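To whoever is on call:

I kicked off a structure prediction for a single chain this morning and the downstream step that reads the tokens threw a length-mismatch warning. I double-checked the sequence; it's 72 residues and nothing unusual in it as far as I can see. Pasting both halves so you can look.
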Amino acid sequence: MGNWDTKKCLKLKWTEGHFWVSVQPLYTNRPYFKYKYVQYSDGHIEDGMDRLADVEVLPEINRGGVHIHDGI
């Protein structure tokens, strides 16, 4: 998503219901990915352990927001 480079990170927007959604599609060839939230205004990366997203249970899969690529 940005390979821990805050200038290349996936940008999110807040939606009703307190959900953050990606502005552009997410492409991955893995069943999961690690991530942290970054505050855009100052580049602060959240403290603590990395978060883990399981692609198989992300709700966006059913709406076409996450695309899994084989063999990349």
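Update from on-call: the warning came from a stale cache, not from the record. Cleared it. Sanity check on the structure: The chain is about 0% helix and 35% strand.
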